[in-house]
Amino acid sequence: MTDSIRILSFHADPGHGWLAAPIDEIREAKLSISGYSYINRDEGMAYLEEDCDAMVFINHLKKNNVPFTISETHINEDHPIRSYEYWPEEWNPKSDVQQWFDDHVEVVQIG
Fold first, then answer.
1. C-alpha–C-alpha distance, residues 48 and 64, integer Å
2. What is the CB neighbour count within 10 angstroms for residue 64?
3. 40 in a structural domain
4. Which of 17, 39, 53, 80 gives the lowest tally of CB atoms within 10 Å of its CB?
5. 31 and 56 Cβ atoms separated by less than 8 Å
6. Overall number of domains in the chain
7. pLDDT recorded at residue 70
8. Which DSSP string do the residues of 28-57 spell out, in sequence order?
9. CB 83 within 8 Å of CB 18
């Protein structure tokens, strides 16, 4: 039986590019994404900036032996993706140290 090849969409404008990926998949995999990526909640998609975040997702696919190819579209003006909401920092997984502090340390405001 042949595995199906997943087709990923890459969107670009003259200044930058983004790889589209499902928000739920990114969050379930506990991938950490920068604030330079965008989301569209209505579509359920994240648009991962090309310099770092796209590779985080691609490496996740490779680690899980998911075959893929990338289809690219380019427009010659600012892409509408630039108007989307930024990836929320609170969606990123906490490090073990951050989780320990959250579980064991109470922050008290003085003054």
1. 19
2. 8
3. yes
4. 80
5. yes
6. 1
7. 98
8. HTT----TTSEEETTTTEEEEETTTHHHHH
9. no
Q: Give the position of tokens 């404008």.
A: 13
**Distance between CA atoms of residues 57 and 51, nearest Å:** 12
- pTM > 0.85: yes or no: no
Using H for helix, E for strand and C for coil, what is the string for 56-103? HHHHHHHHCCCCEEEEEEECCCCCHHHHCEECCHHHCCCCHHHHHHHH
The residue length of the chain stands at: 111
What is the pLDDT, as a whole number, of residue 94? 74
Query: Could you tell me if residue 110 is inside a domain?
Result: no
Contacts 24+ apart (CB under 8 A), 92-97: 92/32, 92/33, 93/30, 93/31, 93/32
User: What pLDDT, on a 0 to 100 scale, did the predictor assign at position 2?
Assistant: 53
Which residue type is seen at 100? Answer: W
Model confidence pLDDT, tens digit, residues 45-88: 999 999 999 999 999 999 999 999 999 999 999 999 999 999 99
